[in-house]
Amino acid sequence: MAGVIACLALYGVATSSPRRFPNEKTYRHSLLEEVDALNTAAAVLGENYKKPKQRKNLQPSLLTLLELNDKGMIEPFVLISKPDAGIAQDLRQISNRSIATSCVSTSASGSSNLTSAAR
After folding, report:
1. Cβ partners under 8 Å of residue 54, min gap 6
2. CA end-to-end span of the chain, whole Å?
3. Is 103 in contact with 114 (CB distance < 8 Å)?
4. From its phi and psi, is residue 110 left (phi > 0), alpha (psi between -120 and 50) or beta?
5. Chain-centroid distance, C-alpha 6
6. Structural domain of residue 110, as residue ranges?
7. How many domains is the chain partitioned into structurally?
């Protein structure tokens, strides 16, 4: 039980840490912040519940957190699990970078992949 309490306490501290984006005028919840908090919580929880027999008694949500962490899937989970406005902003930036990278590469005809795909 102490591990669960420590896990939840660390998550609370991590998500209320000072702003990481000094250029923004107001605080916003970010993908980086949420992933760091969940990774920290999962690490503490994992240290306290290493054996499958110990994990058997965990709350389902905490067990899911450990399983996501074990599979390296915390960041994708945060992105698809009903992100708030701040995380959605990060998702848009990631998407825009991916599209921009696709536009830079060109096909043999000299047109961009994006243009070719639109035809």
Report:
1. 48
2. 59
3. yes
4. left
5. 20
6. 2-118
7. 1
Model confidence at 68, pLDDT cuts 50, 70, 90, reads very high
The tokens describing 92, both together, are 């848009």
- Three-class SS state of 109: coil
Task: Round the average pLDDT of the chain to a whole number and report it.
Answer: 74
At 103, the pLDDT band (50, 70, 90 cuts) reads: low
Q: What is the DSSP letter of 51?
A: S
Distance CA 43, CA 66 (A): 8
pTM given for the model: 0.63
The pLDDT of residue 20 is 66
The token duo for 62 is 């905490």
Residue whose entry in the numeric block shows the structure tokens 């074990």: 70
DSSP 106: B
